[in-house]
Design goal:
- The structure is a single chain.
- By secondary structure, the chain is an alpha/beta fold.
- 34% of the residues lie in helices and 15% in strands.
- The protein has helices at residues 18-21, 24-33, 51-56, 71-75, 96-100, 109-128, 131-141, 167-176, 192-197, 205-211, 231-234, 254-263, 304-319; strands at residues 8-12, 35-42, 59-62, 82-85, 104-107, 159-163, 182-186, 201-202, 214-217, 242-245, 267-270, 290-292.
- It has a seven-stranded parallel β-sheet with strand order 8-7-6-9-10-11-12, with helices on both faces.
- The chain is elongated, with a radius of gyration of 23 Å.
Length: 337
């Protein structure tokens, strides 16, 4: 019997990401498994120059910069049956029309979770050593701290509160295990037994905030988590406590957080903010108790290849008649990023 025709595949993303996502060995695997024009990348679904490729595509490999797949796009892609997302969340990408069509969606979000968890672990360790405060003092005084100034410094027994057993949260819990931390967890979908298996003690959100030295946010950006850390809950964090946010800025009340940080009561490590980026006049850029990074915790540079590899493996599974290993279902969107 003749071999089945390989699926017709098209890229839809900002072309700048393509060579990092799919370096030559991965691109070769894509071309072997599919009918693909590696030079064609759809950036605008209304562009006549790419209309034929969209109309013929059975699989879209999407990424950052891909427009939302709404009813109009799907009408122009009558053969589309699978979307393989070479990035993280698909929340802003897929609309109801896609689910109504029964199109399969897979995301490389698992691969994107790894660098976020690694970044967070690094920041927890640095925060436990009070690294950023000591750096500021050293730059100003050029002298070493006294024993009194370092008495509360260190990571032995440090209480780390993880909000959200998401993919990032679970990977972080794994990474925390070799260290001498006391790990606390809040997640409404996790049982006490499951939390114990993850190496953490399950607490209410309020109790976690009261008992943590370092609080790290890993909850999804959904209506239920909007401003979940408001003024009252931020006030529960002990004086000198550290808030780390690598999730979404919308989870924290920005005015309340700014007030706490300007007062000097709390410290923060923020890779995401609300708004993003912060306006030029924000005091958070200048505060010594705030460490800001420009949304770099997720996959960057050579880390993008990991996402591309997941997509290639998903396409190879599709060709082999196997179900996707990283499928995103419509029902998942109520509780994932």
């Amino acid at each position: 019997m003749p071999s089945p025709q390989p699926p017709r595949v098209a890229f839809a993303m900002d072309p700048v990401h393509l060579p990092l996502l799919f370096p030559p060995p991965l691109m070769a695997r894509l071309r072997k498994a599919s009918d693909l024009d590696p030079a064609l990348v759809v950036r605008d679904f209304t562009d006549p120059a790419t209309a034929d490729a969209v109309a013929r595509a059975e699989v879209l490999i999407t990424g950052w910069g891909c427009p939302r797949l709404d009813a109009g796009v799907l009408a122009a892609a009558p053969r589309l049956r699978t979307v393989l997302h070479a990035a993280g969340s698909v929340r802003s990408l897929v609309g109801e029309a896609l689910w109504e069509r029964g199109i399969t969606v897979s995301s490389a979000v698992t691969g994107n979770a790894l660098p976020v968890a690694e970044y967070t672990l690094a920041m927890i360790l640095l925060a436990g050593k009070d690294t950023f405060t000591h750096r500021e003092r050293f730059r100003a005084s050029h002298t070493y701290p006294s024993h009194t100034e370092t008495a509360a410094t260190g990571n032995v027994g440090r209480r780390v509160g993880v909000i959200g057993a998401s993919r990032v949260g679970r990977r972080l819990l794994e990474l925390l295990r070799p260290f001498d931390f006391t790990v606390l967890l809040h997640d409404p979908y996790v049982s006490p037994a499951e939390a114990t298996a993850l190496g953490a003690e399950l607490l209410s959100l309020e109790d976690l905030l009261r008992h943590s030295d370092i609080v790290s946010l890993h909850a999804p950006d959904i209506p239920e988590t909007y401003r979940m850390l408001d003024a009252d809950r931020l006030a529960l964090i002990r004086d000198g406590g550290v808030l780390i946010n690598t999730s979404r800025g919308a989870l924290v009340d920005p005015g309340a957080l700014t007030d706490e940080l300007v007062s000097g009561r709390l410290h923060a490590i923020l890779d995401v903010t609300e708004p993003e980026p912060l306006p030029a006049g924000s005091p958070l850029y200048r505060l010594p108790n705030v460490f800001l990074t420009p949304h770099i915790a997720g996959s960057l540079g050579n880390e993008l290849e990991r996402l591309g590899r997941i997509v290639v493996e998903e396409l190879e599974r599709l060709v082999a008649g196997l179900p996707p290993a990283h499928e995103v279902r419509h029902s998942d969107l109520d509780r994932v990023a």
